[in-house]
Every structure is written in C-alpha cells, then in structure tokens.
UniProtKB/TrEMBL annotation, chain A:
It comes from the Bacteria. This is ABC transmembrane type-1 domain-containing protein. PROSITE patterns: ABC_TM1 (PS50928). It is found in: Cell inner membrane; Cell membrane.
TrEMBL record, chain B:
This is ABC transporter domain-containing protein. Keywords: ATP-binding, Nucleotide-binding, Transport. Residues 4-240 form the ABC transporter domain. GO terms for biological process: quaternary ammonium group transport. It comes from Nitratireductor pacificus pht-3B. GO terms for molecular function: ATP binding; ATP hydrolysis activity. Pfam families: ABC_tran. Belongs to the ABC transporter superfamily. InterPro entries: AAA+_ATPase, ABC_SmlMolc_Importer, ABC_transporter-like_ATP-bd, ABC_transporter-like_CS, Mo/tungstate-bd_C_term_dom, P-loop_NTPase.
Length: 580, 359
C-alpha cells in the first residue's frame, strides 16, 4: 500500500484550453437558449407585425396601419364573440371542476367499490382529442343521434340540445373533467397527510364533513391551477364550438378565427391577427390570475416527504348510492360516446330505427385505406408524432438541465421563454409558424414540408414537456452532478453521464405523453395544411364538415386504437404510466 | 509547495455575507478543520475552494494557480481544479456500480483500461471494500457508501481532499471508527485535507489545525490544544467544550508574571480573578469563560473561592453534571459526587478562568 502514496497526482482532464472564457459547456447552453428563443419568438413576432400591416404579410409591400385594431374595436360582433367565449369557457370549467373534484374525492379518498377501474376510465377523454369526443357525442346525443332518437321514440322530444352554449359546455366540460381530476388526485387526494384528516375525525367530524372542511380546502391550489388550465383550453377549443356552435350560429373566438382565416374566400389577415391577440390576452390574463391566487401557496403545503398512503375514508351507508351514480356517469359520459363512435365506424347508418346487423359494414375503413390522401394523413401523423415527440423530449430535457443544473446566466430568461407558449393557443401557434415561414427567409424551406408541422408541434408542447421533465430533474440530488464536476467532468459530460441516465424514466414518460398529444393534435396544424401535408385530425375535421360521418368515425376509431395500443405498450414494456 | 491560500474571501447573498472576508493558508499535508454551527459559512467556504460555488470577492490560490480572483474575473470550474471532494450526502451515482463510480475520475482523465482496473482495485482495497466492485450504491450500507465516496475522491490522487461533514450520516459508533480510519488514510496518502464539521469532538480528534467559524468569520485558528486551552473568543470557548459564561464588571487588570490577571465583580458583589489576553479598563463589562470540568468543590490553594447554590444533578455515566446558581446565573459543572441542593462553595483556579471583553 505504501507504493500508493508515491504515485503522482493525476492532472485534471484537459477540456479545451484552460480557463477559456467560453467553454464548450457554455456554448452548448447558449445554443439551447438560442434554439428555444427562436422557436418561441419566431412565430409570435410575425403575428404582432400582421396586426399593424394592412395587407397579408406574404404581399411584399407592407402598409403599416392601425386600421386592424380600429376595425376590431369597431366590430360589434367581436364583442359578442368574446362574451360568448367567456360564457362557454366559464361554464365548461365549472362543469369540469365539479366533476373532476368530486371524482378525485370519491375515487381517490374513499372506500367506494371499483374506484380504481372507474378512476382509470375517468381519464379516457384526456387521451382522446376534443374532435373525437364531440363526434362521439354527436353520434349518440346529437339532434339525430342514436340515443336522442331512441329517447324521442319512447318519450316524445329529447330534452337536451347540444347545439347551444350549455350543450357545448357539457361536452367540453366532461372532456376536461379528467384534467381537474388528475390535478386534485395527485395534488392532494393521494398525497394528503392522513393525520390532517384523522385530526378532524378526533375533533368529531364525520367523513363527509372531513372532506368538506379539510380535504377540499387543501385542494384549493390544485383546483385553481386546473381551473386556469381548463379556462385556457376552453378559450382556445376549436372543434366543439365549430361542430356544436356553428349550426346554431354561436361563435367563439377560435371558431371565428378559423372561419375568417381559413374558411373565408378572402381572409382578412389583419383582423385575424388582431383577434388572435385578443385570444392571447384572455389566456394570459387567466394565467396571471392563477399566479396571483396561488401566491400564498404555503398555506396549503401539506406534502412533506413521507410516502405514506393515506387510509381511505369510510363512506358507510352512502357507499352504494354513490357507486351507482359513478357507474352511470362513466357509462353515459365516457363509454357510450366512444362505443357509439366505434359502432358508427362499422356501420353505414346508425339509427335505432334499423337493426344494427343490417347496416354492419367495413366500407368506411375501406374508404380510409383506399384513398391516398387519407393514408398519407395516417402516415404523416405517425411520422410527425414520433419525430416531434423525440426532438421535443430531447429539447425539453436540455432546457430543463440548463434551467435547473447550470450556471448559465440567463437561465431564468430561458425558463420564462420556454413556458411562454402556454400563453399562445394552438391555433395561433400554427398561424404564427405559417407567417414565420413566409416572413423570415431562413424558415422558407419549411413551407410545404412536414417539418413545418414538426416545428410547430415542438414549439406548442415545450411547456408540457418541461412540466413532465422538470420535476424529475429537481428530484435528482444536486450533489450528484457536483460530484461529477469535482472528479473532472465538465457540465456537458456530467449531464450526459450522470443526469440524463438518471432521467430515463421521465424522458420515456415525456416521449409517450408528447406522442399521444401529437397523435391527437389538429388545432396547431390547421393553418399549416397544404396538399401532401394531411394529418388525421385536420382530415377528420374536413370530413365531418362535409358530412362524411362514417369515414370520420373510422378515422377516429383508428386513432383511438393507435393511442390505446401505445399506452398499453408503454405501460407493459417500460412501466410508463402517463400523467403520474 | 502546494499551499492553499484564501485571501479576503467573501460570499454574499444580497445583504447577507455567508462568508465574510476570510483569509487562510493551508500547508501541504495538513489536516485543517472548519468547525462551527450550521449557517456559519463553513460549507460555503468549502464549496468556494472546490469551485462549486462562485465567491463574491477575494482570491483563492493553490500552489502557483489562481483559482479565483474577483479582480481579474478568473474562476476555474470544479473540473479544472482536480480536488477530491467527499459530499455529506456521498453523492454516489445510483445508476453506476461501485467500480464505475470509482473509475469515473480515471475515465474522464483518459486513463487506460488496465491502469484503471489496477487503481480502482487498489483504492477499493485501501478503503476496505474489495469484493464490492459490482454492487450498486443502493445495495450498500451507509458506512460502505461513505467509503466508496472517499475512494472516488482519492482514486486520482488529488493534491487536496475536501470533506463536507462526511461522517454526519453515520451512527455514533460507526462515526468513532470512521474517524480513526479516515485520519489514517489521509496520513498514509500524505493528502492535504480540509474537513468541515459541526462536531467538536471530531475536530479535536482529527485536525492538525482548527478554524472555528461563526457568522461567516473565522473566530479562532489554531491547533486543537490551543483552541481548547486558550480560546480567544467567548464563542470558541462555549462552542468547544461548552464552557460557562459568567458576566461581570472589570475592577482591575494588571500584568503578573507571564499572565494578565483581571479581577471581575459579579452581579452579587463576589470577586473572581481570571486571565485575559490584554489588560482591560476598569468599569468595562466582561465575560468570563470557565469549563465545567475545571471547577472544583474541594478546596484548592490559590484558587478563587465563590459562594454558589447547588441545584439539580444529572447522571452522565462516569460523572454527574451539577447545575448551580452563581451570581444569579445558572451554570454547569462536572462533579464525581452530586452535591446536596443547598448553598455551598466552589473553587476556580485563576488560569482556568478566561476573561473576554463583553463587546
């Protein structure tokens, strides 16, 4: 052993010239910063520009003007549309929150039978796009829907009307309830310190009183956060207002934008950009309000380490009545629309008047598989989803590492930049990327290539990916990469050899999440559509508008199958459970 | 010679100075301990030496290399410094085996595979973990993890070893033996070591020199004997060996032989002679530090004799800790036999009573 002390010190590894002002690590950090900034800002700036230009941006002579804003403010319709949007978003959020919070309490905190299975099924709408949800609802509960007709035959007229603001809000609300459920479930219901509830029991409170007086108030931050998200999502929602509002001449900002920007024969780009700005302001205000409301969050901090699983509350006599209600909800709100949709895909016509076996057919699927444009849509969607999810995961992982684990001087700016797409509705992202490809010469090559969709998808989902990855980075002890630094690894090496391997589960989870989101996405792509760039969602949108319900349903069924296979495979092979 | 030099090192967070203008030189082969309560800036100082934290101002030099200098803006990142660091959390990489954890520094230095295997084997033998090569950190006990952390920090023969409370996560018994073991390895490898701890026993047992820190400053720097026998600050006296502090007013202060003897008047009018570093002005407020084990119940010639009221005694195994009231203050002394709870006399030798200015 004495030979050891005679050995000489090994010099630190040479990583570029000693004390170079801009090490390769710092350069990598700058690169990540610049890529993020370009991705996020490039689509936003042209929209701002368009607000002040009279003609469309792609006409080279820009005529600067305030006329667009003037016209927007002078347009009485816009005011009404904004109010409709708010009413729709408010009602949607109310329904989603009431359902979501109730479900989180029942499935997450009580001994109700079947709570696990029903909790899983409660989440289904989250995996499907609004487009599929609304088509499913229309097939079953629409004016000529299966159950509407069946009901009408037995009792006279059906008392519901989906073509109304409440109708829209119900469909949107049940689609968004899983989000509220998820936040409340993991925010509090599963992680609450059970002694807080036990303490209330010892003070003489019954189970329902405990829920009302202790559990529910502790859920407040989760409720506020998910409410804000739901308002944002409702404001920018397109398919539901388009399919349910339009027939009754009800317009929201996004359906108005869509029809003005795409549908109109002579789109007024200035007006479109200006109303896009109104949308961004609405969304931004909501998120700002959320931050304000949560600024005293410490009052609700209940999760302090300790992985104890709280004992469920005993429901007692209420057990079976509540169980029945939950089963009915899951059946009629989640299962029936999906089943109706699948059934519609396998039939030529779905009505209670004709026995189903008389109309069974595979023609809808044949139509999908034998039409070039539809097949292209399938393949494009898959390719774009894989590439965008892969690159998006990589980019968000790198952003998270720079934000959390580097001495990069502008990491706070980077964080703000990376989360800023939250303020921009998907429709606007697409519009912005479309403008960017026109205005900025370096983006020109993106036009008419599926890369334009990849770029738009990545940009739109940076906040989502970051939200999935950042917590896992925070959980990895800071000493682990510091230790790597002290034994001679520079920032890049310590991230590559220590942090990234430890983040593997989170990276996989992020990839699956982004993949599913991209697979079902359509709003971002709407303004970017061109021949050859078809994707499933936008194709479905067009098909439904043209009355091709059967083919739409076949498409939707395929998409549901793809998502289901992916989720099951991810869970079986990698143990990745989405949203956990 | 590879001396580590800190000059006017400061680390501020806004208005708060976590490390406040520290200057320090660590000689080659020396074992220096930064000792102090939590929040005293000892870990921040260590992080500044390691390069894990960028100081606000000052200079850090090692041998001929300037590692940090706020004037020139020079700051060497940790990977360029080549110091071994043992973290309080051990910071073993959970996805790598023991062998890979230890060989990482060598891999990063592009050491050949054969040489790596040899060095890793030797180092694991040194820390007594031969045969654990293929284990993962999660499969090791706390003591074993601590040894892997040390192996990883010394495998590339760093010129300087930095240890941040490396024993604080071990249980009391293991801590005792790890202390001896750690010191042996440091001596065997001839390493210069800087050791951070809040445990005074650890510091006294292991160090060549101790820097006692409080509120971002070094209160006293010296050998363990100097720190214990001649604390230069009431904080050093109370933090190490938890001395009693008694307040009083200086009556007179004069040189007598080698010492400066200062007489205090206590709150109840009793007088007490002690040694002070400098002559003190009469009438000023002073604090007198005296260790519990240096106070006697038995009479002693030439010592101060004081009236005190004995109160409760607690049994500590080999002796008792007796509480007593002296001039209206509660103090503690160590006795072999508990005293009855009533008034009595205690005796304190002049040289055991250290007088500090109260300011």
């Amino acid at each position: 052993m004495n030979t050891q002390s005679a050995e000489t010190t090994l010099a630190p590894p040479r990583i570029g010239p000693a004390l170079m002002p801009l090490s390769r690590s710092r350069m990598a950090q700058w690169l990540i910063f610049v890529i993020t900034a370009v991705l996020v800002l490039a689509p936003a700036l042209p929209i701002l520009l368009q607000v002040f230009v009279a003609g469309p941006l792609y006409e080279r002579d820009w005529d600067f003007t305030f006329a667009n804003i003037g016209r927007l403010l002078g347009n009485e319709a816009i005011g009404e549309i904004a109010l409709t949007t708010l009413a729709f978003a408010g009602l949607t959020t109310l329904i989603a929150q009431v359902l979501g919070v109730t479900a989180a309490l029942l499935f997450g905190r009580t001994d109700m039978p079947g709570r696990r299975v029903m909790g899983d099924m409660m989440m289904w709408p989250l995996y499907l796009s609004h487009l599929i949800m609304v088509v499913g609802w229309l097939i079953v509960y629409g004016p000529s829907g299966f159950l509407t007709q069946a009901f009408a035959r037995m009792f006279g007229n059906a008392p519901w009307n989906l073509y109304s603001i409440p109708g829209m809000a119900v469909v949107a609300g049940v689609s968004q309830a899983p989000l509220a459920y998820l936040y409340c479930l993991y925010g509090v219901a599963r992680s609450i310190d059970p002694t807080l509830e036990s303490a209330a029991r010892t003070c003489g409170a019954g189970p329902l009183t405990v829920m009302r007086r202790v559990t529910l108030p502790l859920m407040l931050p989760a409720i506020v956060t998910s409410s804000a998200l739901n308002i944002v999502i409702a404001v920018e929602m397109l398919s539901i207002p388009l399919f349910l509002g339009r027939p009754a001449r009800i317009d929201t900002l996004s359906s108005y934008l869509y029809l003005e920007g795409i549908g109109a024969s002579n789109p007024q780009h200035g007006m479109v950009a200006a109303s896009a700005l109104v949308l961004v302001v609405l969304v931004g205000a909501t998120l700002a309000l959320q931050r304000l409301l949560l600024s005293r969050g410490h009052r609700y901090e209940t999760v302090k380490g300790k992985g104890t699983r709280p004992a469920p509350l005993q429901l007692g006599a209420l057990k079976w009545p509540l169980f029945t209600l939950a089963v009915l909800y899951i059946a009629f709100v989640v299962l029936v629309p999906v089943l109706g949709l699948v059934l519609r895909a396998f039939t030529s016509y779905l009505t209670p008047l004709i026995p189903i076996w008389d109309v069974l057919t595979l023609q809808n699927f044949r139509d999908v598989f034998q039409t070039d444009a539809y097949m292209r849509a399938l393949w494009n969607t898959l390719i774009i989803a894989v590439v965008a999810a892969g690159l998006g995961t990589l980019l968000t992982a790198l952003i998270a590492l720079v934000i959390q684990r580097s001495g990069f001087p502008f990491r706070r700016t980077l964080e703000a930049l990376a989360y800023s797409p939250r303020m921009v509705p998907g429709l606007i992202t697409g519009l912005g990327v479309f403008y960017a490809a026109i205005v900025f010469a370096p983006f020109g090559w993106l036009r008419d290539s599926i890369w334009i969709l990849v770029v738009a998808y990545i940009m739109a989902t940076i906040p989502l990916g970051l939200g999935a990855i950042q917590p896992s980075v925070v959980q990895i002890g800071a000493d682990l990469d510091k230790a790597a630094r002290t034994v001679g690894a520079d920032w890049i090496t310590s991230m590559r050899r220590i942090l990234l391997p430890l983040m593997k589960p989170a990276l996989l989870g992020c990839f699956v999440l982004l993949f599913v989101v991209h697979l079902k996405s359509y709003v971002v792509a709407i303004f970017l559509m061109a021949p050859g760039l078809e994707i499933m969602g936008v194709t479905m949108l067009g098909l439904w508008e043209n009355g091709a319900a059967g083919v739409t349903a076949a498409f939707a069924t395929l998409q549901i199958a793809m998502i289901a296979i992916l989720l099951i495979a991810a869970r079986l092979v990698f143990g990745v459970k989405l949203y956990e | 010679m590879n001396k580590l030099v800190l000059e006017n090192l400061t680390k501020s967070y806004g208005e708060v100075h976590a490390v406040n203008n520290i200057s320090l030189t660590v000689e080659q082969g020396e074992f220096l301990t930064l000792l102090g309560p939590s929040g005293c800036g000892k870990s921040t100082t260590l992080a500044a030496i390691a390069g894990l934290d960028r100081p606000t101002s000052g200079v850090v030099r090692f041998g001929d290399h300037v590692l940090f200098d706020d004037m020139s803006g020079r700051f060497a990142p940790p990977e360029k410094r080549g110091f071994g660091v043992v973290f309080q959390s051990y910071a073993l990489w959970p996805h790598l085996t023991v062998e890979r954890n230890v060989s990482m520094p060598l891999e990063l230095r592009r050491v050949s595979r054969a040489e790596r295997t040899r060095r890793v084997g030797e180092t694991l033998e040194l820390v007594g973990l031969s045969g654990f090569e293929k284990r993962y950190p999660g499969e090791l006990s706390g003591g074993q993890q601590q040894r892997v952390a040390l192996a990883r920090a010394v495998v590339f023969r760093p010129p300087l070893l930095l240890l941040d409370e490396p024993l604080s996560n071990l249980d009391a018994q293991l801590r005792q033996s790890a202390r001896v073991w750690l010191k042996e390895i440091q001596r065997e490898l001839g390493l210069t070591a800087i050791y951070v701890t809040h445990d005074q026993e650890e510091a006294l047992a292991m160090s060549d020199r101790i820097a006692v820190m409080r509120a971002g400053k070094i209160v006293q720097l010296g050998t363990p004997q100097e720190i214990y026998e001649r604390p230069q600050h009431p904080f050093a006296a109370t933090f190490i060996g938890s001395a009693n502090l008694i307040e009083g007013i200086v009556e007179q202060s004069a040189r007598r032989g080698d010492a400066i003897v200062t007489r205090l008047r206590l709150a109840d009018g009793q007088h007490l002679d002690g040694h002070s570093a400098v002559p003190m002005a009469a009438g000023t407020k002073a604090k007198l530090a005296v260790r519990g084990e240096r106070m006697r119940v038995a009479e002693e010639s030439g010592a101060n004799t004081l009236d005190a009221g004995f109160t409760t005694a607690s049994y500590l195994g080999n002796h008792y800790e007796q509480k007593l009231m002296l001039a209206g203050q509660e103090i503690r002394m160590l006795v072999d036999v508990p005293q009855p709870e009533r008034a009595g006399k205690i005796h304190i030798a002049e040289s055991d009573a250290l007088v500090f200015s109260a300011e």
